[in-house]
Amino acid sequence: MPVRKIGGCLDTLPAVRNRFNLPLEKGEKVIFTAKNVDFTTETGRWLGVNSKLTLTNRRLVVDNGIGVWTVDIPDEVKACRKNNDKSVALDLYDSLVCGDDEHPIVMTGFVFMFSKKDEARFTEIMVNFF
C-alpha cells in the first residue's frame, strides 16, 4: 500500500475568504475557492456544471447544486496532474461509488475544469502537495 501523505504543507498556505460559507472544523481553514467549476469522473461522466469548489487545508468540497462531494486530501487523494485539455485531474486511493442501485457511478478520480486563473492557482497548490 502506498504511503499516504500528511496535509502539513497545506497548513502553511494563507487563509482566504470562505466565500461559500463552508462549515469548518477546528484547525481547518479555507485556502482556495472557485465558482463555475465543471467536474467529471476520470472517465468523463459529468458530476457537476457551474459548481462551487472550496479547498481547505484538509478537504476538497464541491457543491454542484444537487449534492456536496467531499474528499479528505491526505487520506483519499493520491495524485494531482494537469491534463493537456486544460483540466486538472485528482486520482483517489480507493474507488468511490455513488448513484443508485440501477445506475451506480464508480470512480477512481475527479477531473475539474476551471477558469484559466483558477486553474493555475488550484494546480499550483495541488501539484506542490504531491
Can you characterise this structure?
- The chain has 130 residues and is α+β, with helices and mostly antiparallel strands.
- The protein has a single domain (28-129), classed as Roll (PH-domain like), CATH 2.30.29.30.
- Helices cover 17% and strands 47% of the residues.
- It contains 3 helices and 7 strands.
- Strands 4-3-2-1-7-6-5 form a 7-stranded antiparallel beta sheet.
- A hairpin with a 4-residue loop joins strand 1 (30-41) and strand 2.
- The longest helix is centred in the last third of the chain and has 14 residues, at 116-129.
- The chain is globular and about 45 Å long.
Briefly note the structural class of the backbone.
Answer: alpha+beta
Q: Counting H and I runs of at least 4 residues, what is the number of helices?
A: 3
CATH superfamily: Pleckstrin-homology domain (PH domain)/Phosphotyrosine-binding domain (PTB)
CATH architecture title? Roll
Provide the helix percentage: 10-25%
What does the overall shape look like?
globular
**Order of secondary-structure elements:** HEEEEHEEEH
Oligomeric nature of the chains = single chain
